[in-house]
């Protein structure tokens, strides 16, 4: 009964827009919100990145990751790194750091393992979405990559709160469904996720694929289905069949190969 009361309080807080964010995400969140401004200034962005050592290190690491360093020429400064990856990809990195920090502060061993698995699922889903958008669904690849990075933000938030309230997530029937959707929606608002991306993510719950796959939601559904690492928060949920969606085995093999390289590269660059 007490656990149900605790969970109800968390959902009520989310519904009121009062999600509890750890102080460790503040620098990345400030950078993300600054980059969401279409009039953001390059010098201001560079100052914000330089003002936080972890952000600076991750920005340079991302710029040197294989997904952005096709030439193999390393960059060694924040300015060159920002110029290489661009504002859109820096925005994605900042969002990834926000999401990842929720898992990084978890103390319980079981929940930490779940958070690590959720991050690996996130990295693979984002990389797959990036490739699928480019090769299959005619969806902007950078938008697909970003959506993949933040699509489990609500899950990371729940895991971080479960670390404070033991047993909170023991019964999926208590938190999956409408409560999960409320928390996911509010996380999207708190992180200033653009509405088209937010809608695609929220609509994933209970969604089914109808051929041909088109748009951001279908891109994410396919990416989640193809991810070699399942979400620990979706145990027991069946995956839709891929029949009629990726009939070309050579194309499927290419998608899996390219995305695996991208996921490894991203995980190394963004690991915090």
From TrEMBL:
Q: Give the stretches traversing the membrane.
A: none
UniProt-listed InterPro entries: HDOD (IPR013976), RNase_Y/CdgJ (IPR052340)
Q: Where is the HDOD domain?
A: 21-207
What single Pfam family name could you report for this chain, choosing any that match? HDOD
Under the heading PANTHER family, the entry gives: PTHR33525, RIBONUCLEASE Y (PTHR33525:SF3)
Protein name, per record: HDOD domain-containing protein
């Amino acid at each position: 009964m007490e656990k149900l009361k605790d969970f109800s309080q968390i959902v009520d807080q989310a519904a009121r827009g009062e999600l509890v964010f750890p102080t460790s995400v503040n620098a990345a969140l400030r950078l993300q919100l600054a980059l969401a401004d279409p009039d953001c200034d390059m010098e201001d962005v560079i100052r914000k990145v330089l003002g936080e050592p972890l952000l600076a290190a991750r920005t340079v690491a991302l710029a040197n990751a294989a997904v952005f360093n096709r030439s193999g020429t390393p960059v060694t400064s924040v300015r060159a790194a920002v110029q290489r990856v661009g504002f859109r990809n820096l925005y994605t990195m900042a969002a990834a750091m926000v999401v990842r920090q929720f898992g990084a502060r978890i103390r319980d061993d079981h929940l930490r393992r779940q958070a690590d698995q959720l991050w690996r699922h996130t990295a693979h889903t984002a990389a797959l979405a990036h490739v699928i958008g480019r090769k299959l669904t005619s969806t902007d690849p950078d938008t697909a990559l970003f959506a993949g990075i933040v699509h489990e933000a609500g899950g990371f938030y729940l895991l971080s709160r479960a670390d404070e309230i033991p047993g909170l997530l023991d019964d999926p029937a208590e938190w999956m469904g409408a409560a999960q959707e409320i928390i996911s929606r509010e996380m999207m608002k708190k992180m200033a996720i653009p509405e088209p991306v937010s809608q695609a993510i929220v609509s994933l719950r209970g969604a089914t694929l109808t051929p041909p796959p088109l748009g951001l939601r279908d891109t994410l559904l396919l990416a989640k289905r193809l991810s070699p690492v399942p979400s620990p928060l979706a145990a027991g949920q069946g995956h839709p069949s891929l029949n009629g969606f990726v009939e070309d085995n050579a194309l499927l093999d290419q998608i899996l190969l390219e995305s695996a390289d991208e996921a490894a590269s991203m995980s190394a660059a963004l690991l915090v």
